[in-house]
Amino acid sequence: MIQLTDVHKAFGSNRVLRGVNLTIPKGTSMVIIGGSGTGKSVALKCVLGLVRPDSGTITVDGLNVEKGDRDAFLAKFGMLFQGGALFDSLPVWQNVAFRLLRGSLKRPKDEAREIAIEKLRRVGLKPDVADKYPAELSGGMQKRVGLARAIAAEPEIIFFDEPTTGLDPIMSGVINELIREIVVEMGATAMTITHDMTSVRAIADNVAMLHDGVIKWTGPVAQMDDSGDPYLDQFIHGRAEGPIEAVR
Ligand SMILES: Nc1ncnc2c1ncn2[C@@H]1O[C@H](COP(=O)(O)OP(=O)(O)OP(=O)(O)O)[C@@H](O)[C@H]1O
Ligand SMILES: [Mg+2]
Protein backbone atom coordinates (compact mmCIF):
# COMPACT_ATOMS: atom_id res chain seq x y z
CA MET A 1 0.00 0.00 0.00
CA ILE A 2 2.85 2.36 0.85
CA GLN A 3 6.28 2.11 -0.68
CA LEU A 4 9.29 4.37 -0.12
CA THR A 5 12.26 3.79 -2.40
CA ASP A 6 15.61 5.45 -1.75
CA VAL A 7 14.04 8.59 -0.27
CA HIS A 8 16.42 11.43 0.54
CA LYS A 9 15.60 14.68 2.32
CA ALA A 10 17.92 17.36 3.67
CA PHE A 11 17.18 20.72 5.29
CA GLY A 12 20.23 22.79 4.39
CA SER A 13 23.24 20.82 5.62
CA ASN A 14 21.08 18.62 7.86
CA ARG A 15 20.78 15.38 5.88
CA VAL A 16 17.79 13.85 7.59
CA LEU A 17 16.70 11.02 5.27
CA ARG A 18 19.59 9.37 3.42
CA GLY A 19 18.03 6.59 1.39
CA VAL A 20 14.95 5.30 3.17
CA ASN A 21 13.40 2.09 1.82
CA LEU A 22 10.19 0.88 3.37
CA THR A 23 7.21 -1.25 2.32
CA ILE A 24 3.89 -1.31 4.15
CA PRO A 25 1.52 -4.02 2.86
CA LYS A 26 -2.19 -3.23 2.63
CA GLY A 27 -4.16 -3.82 5.82
CA THR A 28 -1.10 -4.03 8.05
CA SER A 29 0.21 -1.91 10.87
CA MET A 30 3.76 -0.59 10.63
CA VAL A 31 5.40 1.12 13.57
CA ILE A 32 8.38 3.39 13.06
CA ILE A 33 10.74 3.77 15.98
CA GLY A 34 13.97 5.72 16.39
CA GLY A 35 15.61 8.43 18.42
CA SER A 36 14.31 11.95 18.70
CA GLY A 37 15.22 14.02 15.64
CA THR A 38 16.04 11.04 13.40
CA GLY A 39 13.41 12.04 10.83
CA LYS A 40 10.37 9.93 11.67
CA SER A 41 7.91 12.80 11.38
CA VAL A 42 9.66 14.04 8.23
CA ALA A 43 9.33 10.58 6.64
CA LEU A 44 5.64 10.53 7.45
CA LYS A 45 5.13 14.02 6.06
CA CYS A 46 6.87 12.93 2.85
CA VAL A 47 4.32 10.14 2.43
CA LEU A 48 1.51 12.64 2.91
CA GLY A 49 3.10 15.00 0.40
CA LEU A 50 3.49 17.74 3.03
CA VAL A 51 7.27 17.61 2.67
CA ARG A 52 8.81 17.02 -0.73
CA PRO A 53 11.75 14.59 -0.83
CA ASP A 54 14.93 15.69 -2.65
CA SER A 55 15.07 12.35 -4.44
CA GLY A 56 13.58 8.89 -4.39
CA THR A 57 10.01 7.78 -4.98
CA ILE A 58 6.98 7.26 -2.79
CA THR A 59 3.94 5.41 -4.03
CA VAL A 60 0.62 4.92 -2.28
CA ASP A 61 -1.67 2.23 -3.68
CA GLY A 62 0.57 2.19 -6.76
CA LEU A 63 0.25 5.93 -7.42
CA ASN A 64 3.10 8.40 -7.15
CA VAL A 65 2.45 10.80 -4.26
CA GLU A 66 3.59 13.85 -6.20
CA LYS A 67 1.42 13.23 -9.24
CA GLY A 68 -2.29 12.82 -9.70
CA ASP A 69 -5.38 14.20 -8.03
CA ARG A 70 -4.36 15.62 -4.65
CA ASP A 71 -7.90 15.77 -3.22
CA ALA A 72 -8.70 12.19 -4.14
CA PHE A 73 -5.35 11.17 -2.70
CA LEU A 74 -5.85 12.98 0.61
CA ALA A 75 -9.40 11.64 0.95
CA LYS A 76 -7.85 8.20 1.58
CA PHE A 77 -5.90 9.44 4.61
CA GLY A 78 -6.45 10.16 8.25
CA MET A 79 -3.69 11.75 10.26
CA LEU A 80 -2.97 12.36 13.91
CA PHE A 81 -0.29 15.04 14.16
CA GLN A 82 2.33 14.87 16.90
CA GLY A 83 1.29 18.21 18.35
CA GLY A 84 -2.44 17.61 17.94
CA ALA A 85 -2.84 20.50 15.48
CA LEU A 86 -6.44 21.25 16.47
CA PHE A 87 -8.12 24.44 15.26
CA ASP A 88 -8.34 26.66 18.35
CA SER A 89 -11.23 28.70 17.02
CA LEU A 90 -13.51 25.71 16.35
CA PRO A 91 -15.41 23.69 18.94
CA VAL A 92 -14.31 20.09 19.42
CA TRP A 93 -17.04 18.53 17.31
CA GLN A 94 -16.19 20.74 14.32
CA ASN A 95 -12.55 19.76 14.70
CA VAL A 96 -13.48 16.08 14.65
CA ALA A 97 -15.92 16.49 11.76
CA PHE A 98 -13.69 18.93 9.91
CA ARG A 99 -13.52 16.94 6.70
CA LEU A 100 -17.18 15.96 6.90
CA LEU A 101 -18.21 19.61 6.82
CA ARG A 102 -16.50 20.50 3.55
CA GLY A 103 -15.17 19.18 0.26
CA SER A 104 -15.89 15.82 -1.34
CA LEU A 105 -16.76 14.11 1.97
CA LYS A 106 -19.35 16.75 2.94
CA ARG A 107 -22.40 15.59 4.97
CA PRO A 108 -25.36 17.44 6.45
CA LYS A 109 -24.39 19.29 9.63
CA ASP A 110 -26.46 17.15 12.08
CA GLU A 111 -25.08 13.97 10.62
CA ALA A 112 -21.50 15.27 10.83
CA ARG A 113 -22.09 16.20 14.47
CA GLU A 114 -23.49 12.75 15.27
CA ILE A 115 -20.46 11.08 13.70
CA ALA A 116 -18.19 13.40 15.68
CA ILE A 117 -19.89 12.45 18.95
CA GLU A 118 -19.64 8.74 18.11
CA LYS A 119 -15.91 9.07 17.32
CA LEU A 120 -15.36 11.01 20.55
CA ARG A 121 -17.01 8.15 22.40
CA ARG A 122 -14.61 5.68 20.75
CA VAL A 123 -11.64 7.59 22.13
CA GLY A 124 -13.19 7.73 25.60
CA LEU A 125 -14.61 11.27 25.56
CA LYS A 126 -18.15 12.16 26.65
CA PRO A 127 -20.62 14.00 24.40
CA ASP A 128 -20.36 17.19 26.47
CA VAL A 129 -16.79 17.60 25.19
CA ALA A 130 -18.22 18.22 21.71
CA ASP A 131 -19.12 21.85 22.41
CA LYS A 132 -15.97 22.79 24.27
CA TYR A 133 -12.99 24.52 22.66
CA PRO A 134 -9.55 22.84 22.47
CA ALA A 135 -8.08 25.31 25.00
CA GLU A 136 -10.57 24.10 27.61
CA LEU A 137 -9.26 20.51 27.45
CA SER A 138 -6.29 18.79 29.06
CA GLY A 139 -3.36 17.77 26.83
CA GLY A 140 -4.42 14.13 26.85
CA MET A 141 -7.99 15.07 25.91
CA GLN A 142 -6.71 17.18 23.02
CA LYS A 143 -4.70 14.19 21.83
CA ARG A 144 -7.83 12.06 21.84
CA VAL A 145 -9.77 14.71 19.91
CA GLY A 146 -6.97 14.62 17.32
CA LEU A 147 -7.34 10.87 17.16
CA ALA A 148 -11.12 11.10 16.77
CA ARG A 149 -10.59 13.53 13.90
CA ALA A 150 -8.09 11.16 12.26
CA ILE A 151 -10.62 8.30 12.19
CA ALA A 152 -13.76 10.39 11.53
CA ALA A 153 -13.87 9.88 7.77
CA GLU A 154 -13.01 6.15 8.06
CA PRO A 155 -9.83 6.43 6.01
CA GLU A 156 -8.13 3.56 4.17
CA ILE A 157 -4.74 4.71 5.38
CA ILE A 158 -4.08 6.20 8.74
CA PHE A 159 -1.03 7.86 10.24
CA PHE A 160 -0.45 8.27 13.95
CA ASP A 161 2.43 10.42 15.13
CA GLU A 162 2.94 9.65 18.85
CA PRO A 163 -0.65 8.55 19.59
CA THR A 164 -0.06 7.71 23.27
CA THR A 165 2.42 10.41 24.34
CA GLY A 166 0.99 12.36 27.25
CA LEU A 167 -1.74 9.85 28.04
CA ASP A 168 -2.05 7.89 31.28
CA PRO A 169 -1.27 4.14 31.02
CA ILE A 170 -4.92 3.07 30.96
CA MET A 171 -5.89 5.55 28.26
CA SER A 172 -2.78 4.51 26.30
CA GLY A 173 -4.10 0.95 26.43
CA VAL A 174 -7.49 2.11 25.16
CA ILE A 175 -5.87 3.99 22.27
CA ASN A 176 -3.62 1.04 21.39
CA GLU A 177 -6.67 -1.22 21.24
CA LEU A 178 -8.50 1.31 19.09
CA ILE A 179 -5.61 1.45 16.61
CA ARG A 180 -5.55 -2.35 16.45
CA GLU A 181 -9.31 -2.39 15.83
CA ILE A 182 -9.06 0.15 13.03
CA VAL A 183 -6.55 -2.08 11.26
CA VAL A 184 -8.27 -5.41 11.94
CA GLU A 185 -11.94 -4.40 11.55
CA MET A 186 -11.75 -1.62 9.00
CA GLY A 187 -8.89 -3.22 7.08
CA ALA A 188 -7.00 0.06 7.17
CA THR A 189 -3.28 0.37 6.59
CA ALA A 190 -1.57 2.11 9.49
CA MET A 191 1.76 3.84 9.95
CA THR A 192 2.50 4.84 13.53
CA ILE A 193 5.42 6.64 15.09
CA THR A 194 5.99 6.05 18.77
CA HIS A 195 8.59 5.97 21.52
CA ASP A 196 6.30 3.89 23.69
CA MET A 197 7.51 0.28 23.53
CA THR A 198 4.29 -1.03 25.10
CA SER A 199 2.44 0.61 22.26
CA VAL A 200 4.82 -0.93 19.69
CA ARG A 201 4.08 -4.41 20.99
CA ALA A 202 0.34 -3.75 21.14
CA ILE A 203 -0.18 -2.33 17.67
CA ALA A 204 2.59 -3.41 15.29
CA ASP A 205 2.54 -6.14 12.71
CA ASN A 206 5.91 -4.89 11.53
CA VAL A 207 8.48 -2.56 13.02
CA ALA A 208 11.07 -0.36 11.32
CA MET A 209 13.85 1.46 13.10
CA LEU A 210 15.12 4.71 11.62
CA HIS A 211 18.69 5.70 12.46
CA ASP A 212 21.34 7.74 10.63
CA GLY A 213 18.86 8.53 7.86
CA VAL A 214 18.15 4.92 6.92
CA ILE A 215 16.00 2.02 8.08
CA LYS A 216 18.51 0.15 10.24
CA TRP A 217 16.23 -2.79 10.92
CA THR A 218 12.76 -3.86 9.83
CA GLY A 219 10.81 -7.03 10.46
CA PRO A 220 7.80 -8.58 12.17
CA VAL A 221 7.27 -7.43 15.74
CA ALA A 222 7.77 -11.02 16.98
CA GLN A 223 11.37 -10.90 15.71
CA MET A 224 12.20 -7.61 17.38
CA ASP A 225 13.58 -9.13 20.59
CA ASP A 226 16.08 -11.48 19.00
CA SER A 227 17.10 -9.44 15.99
CA GLY A 228 20.77 -9.43 17.02
CA ASP A 229 20.89 -5.79 15.84
CA PRO A 230 22.82 -3.74 18.44
CA TYR A 231 21.05 -0.47 17.50
CA LEU A 232 17.60 -1.99 17.84
CA ASP A 233 18.55 -3.76 21.08
CA GLN A 234 19.85 -0.58 22.65
CA PHE A 235 16.73 1.30 21.64
CA ILE A 236 14.14 -1.21 22.82
CA HIS A 237 15.88 -1.66 26.15
CA GLY A 238 16.58 2.03 26.60
CA ARG A 239 20.26 1.52 27.38
CA ALA A 240 22.51 4.57 27.67
CA GLU A 241 25.49 2.49 26.49
CA GLY A 242 25.65 1.19 22.92
CA PRO A 243 26.25 2.17 19.32
CA ILE A 244 23.70 5.01 19.49
CA GLU A 245 25.22 8.10 21.10
CA ALA A 246 22.87 9.63 23.63
CA VAL A 247 24.15 13.17 23.04
CA ARG A 248 24.19 14.63 19.58
N1 LIG B 1 10.42 22.01 8.10
C1 LIG B 1 11.66 21.79 8.56
N2 LIG B 1 12.67 22.66 8.29
C2 LIG B 1 13.92 22.42 8.73
N3 LIG B 1 14.29 21.35 9.44
C3 LIG B 1 13.34 20.46 9.73
C4 LIG B 1 11.97 20.63 9.32
N4 LIG B 1 11.26 19.58 9.76
C5 LIG B 1 12.11 18.80 10.43
N5 LIG B 1 13.37 19.31 10.42
C6 LIG B 1 14.57 18.70 11.02
O1 LIG B 1 14.61 17.34 10.61
C7 LIG B 1 15.09 16.52 11.67
C8 LIG B 1 14.13 15.40 11.93
O2 LIG B 1 12.92 15.94 12.47
P1 LIG B 1 11.65 15.05 12.79
O3 LIG B 1 10.59 15.96 13.25
O4 LIG B 1 11.35 14.15 11.65
O5 LIG B 1 12.19 14.15 14.01
P2 LIG B 1 11.49 12.93 14.73
O6 LIG B 1 12.27 11.69 14.41
O7 LIG B 1 10.06 12.93 14.42
O8 LIG B 1 11.78 13.30 16.26
P3 LIG B 1 10.80 13.22 17.58
O9 LIG B 1 10.89 11.79 18.02
O10 LIG B 1 11.48 14.14 18.54
O11 LIG B 1 9.44 13.65 17.17
C9 LIG B 1 15.35 17.45 12.84
O12 LIG B 1 16.73 17.75 12.87
C10 LIG B 1 14.53 18.68 12.52
O13 LIG B 1 15.12 19.84 13.05
MG1 LIG C 1 8.35 13.42 15.46
From TrEMBL:
Q: SMART domains this protein is in? A: AAA
Which Gene Ontology terms cover its molecular function? ATP binding; ATP hydrolysis activity
Pfam family of this protein, just one?
ABC_tran
Coiled-coil regions listed: none
Check the record and name the Gene3D superfamilies matching this protein.
P-loop containing nucleotide triphosphate hydrolases (3.40.50.300)
Q: Which InterPro entries match?
A: AAA+_ATPase (IPR003593), ABC_transporter-like_ATP-bd (IPR003439), ABC_transporter-like_CS (IPR017871), P-loop_NTPase (IPR027417)
Arranged from A to Z, the UniProt key words for this protein are: ATP-binding, Nucleotide-binding, Transport
* UniProt keyword Lyase present: no
- Domain ABC transporter as annotated: residue spans: 2-237
User: Looking at the keywords, is Methyltransferase present?
Assistant: no
| Entry-linked PANTHER family | INTERMEMBRANE PHOSPHOLIPID TRANSPORT SYSTEM ATP-BINDING PROTEIN MLAF (PTHR43023:SF6), PROTEIN TRIGALACTOSYLDIACYLGLYCEROL 3, CHLOROPLASTIC (PTHR43023)
- Report the protein name in the record: Phospholipid/cholesterol/gamma-HCH transport system ATP-binding protein
Write the lineage as a comma-separated list.
Answer: Bacteria, Pseudomonadati, Pseudomonadota, Alphaproteobacteria, Rhodobacterales
